[in-house]
Design goal:
Length: about 200
């Protein structure tokens, strides 16, 4: 009984302290923090992205995706959290942009680093046939492949040369495919095997 009464009094105390106006409008200090720190953080983010180059916001692999999401999260924290200072925001942005720059710099110079941070594109469909084991490996439904073909204007599977799952999760649909001339597919997982069988 005492526990119930204590809960009732606690609820009443909370209701007495509750302010709808404060929840809706916040305090002037919070508003000024969002206005000033948010504006400066946004300007700083644009400057650092401009300095680091277009590669920073590309989405060619999973690490690129993580960096893009993290930058948005940092900016959101700077806008809404009073405990996060402008200096902390800038340090976090520089840290992520710096990691991105170092990894991409290393990946274009080292095949080992590139293999570690970047997945290979995968062949899911080849000359009218689904490649079952690769579809299961990549956890892609056949309906998703068919949808990608329709989006690219395809209607007959026999007219499609190949469908490739790229490293950023998008589908590339190739209609006219000459196996002997398809050097752009040389790094695609599963293509060499299918090409050799096609030429046999």
């Amino acid at each position: 009984m005492s526990i119930y009464v204590k809960g009732v009094f606690s609820s009443r105390a909370y209701m007495d302290d509750y302010s709808l106006t404060q929840d809706l409008l916040a305090s002037w200090a919070s508003l000024f923090h969002t206005l000033i720190t948010g504006t400066l953080s946004y300007i700083g983010l644009i400057i650092w992205l401009r300095v680091s180059g277009k590669r920073t916001l590309s989405k060619w692999n999973s690490f690129d995706f993580v960096v893009t999401i993290a930058l948005g999260s940092i900016l959101a924290s700077a806008l809404l959290t009073k405990s996060v200072s402008l200096v902390q925001t800038m340090v976090a942005i520089v840290l992520l942009v710096g990691f991105q720059f170092i990894l991409t710099w290393l990946s274009v110079r080292s095949s080992i680093v590139q293999t570690l941070i970047k997945a290979k594109p995968t062949l899911l469909f080849f000359k009218g046939e689904f490649i079952e084991h690769l579809i299961k490996q990549e956890r892609v439904a056949k309906g998703e492949v068919l949808a990608a073909i329709r989006v690219r204007g395809g209607s007959n599977l026999n007219d499609i040369g190949a469908v490739v799952l790229e490293t950023d999760g998008t589908f590339s649909v190739i209609k006219d495919l000459d196996v002997n001339e398809a050097n752009a597919l040389r790094d695609v997982q599963g293509f060499r095997e299918k090409a050799s069988l096609s030429n046999a």
